[in-house]
Design goal:
- The protein is an all-alpha fold and 450 residues long.
- The chain has one domain: Growth Hormone, Chain: A (Up-down Bundle), CATH 1.20.1250.20.
- Helices cover 79% and strands 0% of the residues.
- Helix 3 runs parallel beside helix 6, helix 16 runs antiparallel to helix 17 and helix 17 runs parallel beside helix 18.
- The radius of gyration is 21 Å and the shape is globular.
Length: 450
C-alpha cells in the first residue's frame, strides 16, 4: 500500500508537466482578439502567432529524447519547469510582437518536452496493473490545465483590466511552474533509466518504493536487463530500423489521427468558433469553460476504467462520438452559414460538447499511454519523442490553417475532420493492438521485437 501511494504521488508530480502543458496550450484562446487588435494581425499572422508555440513544441518533442537518456527523465523535468516559468513571465511582459513570439516559442519547447517525458517517466516507474491510469494522470492534468486556463481567462475578463488583461492571462502560468519545480525534489529517478546506465542498486531502491509487476525486485531487474539487452544492442542505437517499424507506424498513426480530429483548433479557437456560431463575447468565453469542464469529467471517467476497459475499446467509442459530433457541426454550419439563430448556436454548442467528451474518453486518454507503452526500453525515449513530434507537427498545421479555412467555410472544415475520424475508426478496428495489463517488456515481445 505504501508503494502504491508513493508511485501515485510521484506520478501526480510528474504529471504537473501535463497541467502546465494544458494551461500553456489553451490560455491563448482568450487572448486572440487582443493580440489581433494590439499587433494589428491578419488571419494568416494570427494563425502564425498561435502556431509559434507549436513550432517550439515540435522542436521540444524531437530534441528531448537524447537528454532524457543522458541526464535522466527527472532532471529533464526540472529544466522544463524552468522553461514554463520563463515563458509565463516573458509573454506577460512582452514588449512587441517578436518578443511575444519568442516567449511563446520557449513555452512550446516546454510543452513538447513534457508531452514526451512526463508520460514516459510515469510508465517507467509504474507497475503494469495500474500503469494505464497512472500515465493517464498526465492527460487528466492536461485537461485540468486547459480548464484552469479557460476559467482563469474568464475570471480575468470579469475584472475589466482593459488592454492589460491578456498579459495577466499569460503571467498566471508562473505560479504552477514554481510548484512543479519544487515538488520534483521529492520524486525518484526512473528505475528503468537507472538500470540502463548501470545504477542497479539505486534502481532496486526505486522498485522497492514504487512496486513491481512480478513481486520480486531481482526478477524485475533481470527482466528489464533482458529487455535492454545491452550486450547486443546499444542504448544509443538508431530508432529507425526494420525491427522497430511496427511501433513507429503505430505511434505516428495515433498521433496524426489525434490532431486530424481538429481538437487543437477547438482548444486554441473555442471562443472564436462560438462567435462564428452567433454567440456574444462573454457567452463565448462561458461556453469555452463548459467545453473545458466536459473535457475534465470524461477524462476522469476514462482514467478510472482504462486498465479494465482497455485502450482499444476507448478508441472505438471515441471515434464513433467524433464522427457524430463533427458531422453534426459541419451540417449546422452548412445550414446556417453566417446567419445563426439561437437554435443553430445551441446545436453547435451541444455538438462540440459531444466532440470534447468523445476526445476525452478516447484519443485524449489513450494517446500518451499507448505511445509510452509500445517502444522497447532501449529506444523508448526516442520513440516517445517521435510520436510527440508527429502529434505537434500536425497540431501546428491544424492550428495555423484553421483561421484561414474557417473564414472560407466552417462546414468544409468540420466535414474534413469528420472524414479523417472515419479513417481513424477503420485503423482502430483493423490495426491497433491492445496493451492493457501487460508489462512493458512483454508488450515488446507481443509486437515481435527481440
Amino acid at each position: 500500500m505504501k508503494s502504491k501511494k508513493f508511485v501515485f504521488f510521484s506520478s501526480i508530480v510528474a504529471a504537473l508537466g501535463g497541467l502546465l502543458f494544458g494551461f500553456d496550450t489553451a490560455v491563448i484562446s482568450g487572448t486572440t482578439h487582443w493580440l489581433q487588435k494590439i499587433y494589428n494581425l491578419s488571419s494568416f499572422e494570427l494563425g502564425f502567432t498561435v502556431a509559434s508555440a507549436l513550432i517550439g513544441t515540435i522542436l521540444g518533442a524531437v530534441s528531448v529524447g537524447k537528454p532524457s537518456d543522458k541526464f535522466g527523465r527527472k532532471e529533464v523535468l526540472f529544466a522544463l519547469a524552468i522553461l514554463y516559468f520563463i515563458s509565463g513571465l516573458g509573454t506577460a511582459f512582452a514588449w512587441d510582437w517578436i518578443s511575444f513570439l519568442l516567449f511563446r516559442f520557449i513555452g512550446g519547447l516546454a510543452v513538447g518536452g513534457s508531452s514526451v517525458v512526463s508520460p514516459m517517466y510515469i510508465a517507467e516507474i509504474s507497475p503494469a496493473k495500474y500503469r494505464g491510469r497512472l500515465v493517464a494522470i498526465t492527460q487528466f492534468n492536461i485537461v485540468l490545465g486547459i480548464l484552469l486556463a479557460f476559467f482563469s481567462n474568464y475570471i480575468i475578463t470579469e475584472l475589466n483590466l482593459g488592454e492589460t488583461e491578456w498579459r495577466w492571462m499569460f503571467g498566471v502560468q508562473a505560479v504552477p511552474a514554481i510548484i512543479f519545480f519544487s515538488l520534483l525534489f521529492f520524486t525518484p529517478s526512473s528505475s528503468r533509466w537507472l538500470i540502463a546506465i548501470g545504477k542497479i542498486e539505486e534502481a532496486k531502491e526505486v522498485l522497492r518504493k514504487c512496486g513491481t509487476d512480478s513481486g520480486s525486485i531481482e526478477e524485475e531487474v533481470s527482466e528489464i536487463q533482458i529487455s535492454l539487452d545491452l550486450e547486443h544492442h546499444q542504448i544509443k542505437e538508431s530508432l529507425f530500423q526494420k525491427k522497430y517499424t511496427k511501433p513507429i507506424l503505430l505511434a505516428a498513426a495515433i498521433a496524426m489521427f489525434n490532431q486530424l480530429s481538429g481538437i487543437n483548433a477547438l482548444m486554441y479557437y473555442a471562443p472564436h468558433i462560438f462567435k462564428m456560431a452567433g454567440s456574444g463575447e462573454e457567452s463565448a468565453l462561458l461556453q469555452t469553460v463548459a467545453i473545458g469542464g466536459t473535457n475534465l469529467i470524461f477524462t476522469m471517467l476514462a482514467l478510472l476504467i482504462i486498465d479494465q476497459f482497455g485502450r482499444k475499446k476507448l478508441m472505438l467509442v471515441g471515434s464513433i462520438g467524433y464522427i457524430i459530433s463533427l458531422g453534426t457541426t459541419a451540417w449546422t454550419f452548412y445550414s446556417f452559414g453566417t446567419s445563426f439563430n439561437e437554435v443553430g448556436s445551441y446545436v453547435v454548442l451541444i455538438s462540440l460538447i459531444l466532440f470534447i467528451a468523445s476526445h476525452a474518453f478516447g484519443q485524449g486518454a489513450v494517446i500518451w499511454v499507448f505511445i509510452s507503452e509500445i517502444f522497447p526500453n532501449r529506444v523508448r525515449a526516442r520513440g516517445q519523442a517521435l510520436g510527440s513530434f508527429t502529434h505537434w507537427v500536425m497540431a501546428a498545421l491544424i492550428s495555423w490553417t484553421f483561421p484561414m479555412f474557417a473564414e472560407v467555410s466552417g462546414g468544409h472544415t468540420f466535414a474534413f475532420y469528420a472524414i479523417c475520424m472515419i479513417a481513424q475508426l477503420i485503423w482502430v478496428i483493423k490495426v491497433m493492438p491492445e496493451t492493457k495489463g501487460i508489462s512493458l517488456e512483454k508488450i515488446q515481445h507481443k509486437l515481435g521485437i527481440e
